[in-house]
Amino acid sequence: MSQALVSQFDVGLFDLDGVCYLGAEAVPFAPEAISEAVTMGLKQAYVTNNASRSPAVVAAQLESLGIPAPADSVVNSAQVGSQMLAEHVASGSKILVLGAQALRDEVTARGLVVVDSADDNPAAVIQGFYPDANWTDLSEAALAIRAGALYVCTNLDATIPRERGLMVGNGSLARAIANSTGVEPLSAGKPEPEIFQIAAKLLNANRPFAIGDNLDTDIQGAVSANVPVLHVLTGLASARDICVAPIHQRPTYLADDLRCLLEPYPDTVVDGETIRVGNASARWTGEDFEVNGEQLTSSPVTLGLNSYRALAQAAWDAADSGVDSETLASALPNLTVSRDHGE
Ligand SMILES: [Mg+2]
């Protein structure tokens, strides 16, 4: 196969932090690779749990980094949560909103009516991150949920990063309501599958794929939504994390960075006990891993891209055949992946 990976798909659902940018800087190769993928016909969407910045603000930031981002390309969990409401309750239903004005606007935009009291008999409660939330707001929501209102959260993140450190996130505030009512919320954020399914639907995608850096949000969410997912090593999860990932957090495609979008993706071939990717090979011997015929040593190792892909598949197959995770973990050194390192 010689076609670029990206040509197999019509919509890319990109994560932001660790994929497009890191803090104030673009991730290396992200602006060029996404621009080229868009030129080749991919529709791009940026999918984020963070609903505290509006899509227009996020789009402007991406554009300032050279990443093409029309205003409607950013999909946040406020939009997804509102869409979930619209799919669960009748048009014109009353919704008790705990959240910022942006969330209230999203709810209104979907033909629903925002109310502020449980006495209005809302059909649903939606809760988004909202620094001004207080006991009265939480209790109003609890009353509505006890009376039968559907309970939806934009995300269940336990923490929210702020300049002074990790503060109390939406998921932690939701625990107060869940604890008080005994009702667990539906979530519109990663790793729940809905954010991927609804983002794909909002973009009329036929063949969507996701791109992420974080195993327990991006990869797990895409896997559970049945959306193929490319992992890049420019953010949180390392190559070693990928090799030891449980089955529900394993990416479909392994990349070093977004340049892989524009390159053909090699087939993974099982050859007896050996996994072959391109000219690279890897094997679990029963005691340790061999990569390209050489035993992996315990010191940090640098691997080429296809060697990393072969090793990850060999490690997943060993885990699936019953080798215990501690044995595998102790056989895997810290890995650096470099495309300048041959296969
Ligand atoms: Mg990320």
TrEMBL record:
<keyword id="KW-0378">Hydrolase</keyword>
<dbReference type="GO" id="GO:0016791">
    <property type="term" value="F:phosphatase activity"/>
</dbReference>
<dbReference type="InterPro" id="IPR006439">
    <property type="entry name" value="HAD-SF_hydro_IA"/>
</dbReference>
<dbReference type="Pfam" id="PF13242">
    <property type="entry name" value="Hydrolase_like"/>
</dbReference>
<dbReference type="InterPro" id="IPR036412">
    <property type="entry name" value="HAD-like_sf"/>
</dbReference>
<dbReference type="InterPro" id="IPR023214">
    <property type="entry name" value="HAD_sf"/>
</dbReference>
<dbReference type="GO" id="GO:0005737">
    <property type="term" value="C:cytoplasm"/>
</dbReference>
<dbReference type="InterPro" id="IPR006357">
    <property type="entry name" value="HAD-SF_hydro_IIA"/>
</dbReference>
<protein>
    <submittedName>
        <fullName>HAD family hydrolase</fullName>
    </submittedName>
</protein>
<dbReference type="Pfam" id="PF13344">
    <property type="entry name" value="Hydrolase_6"/>
</dbReference>
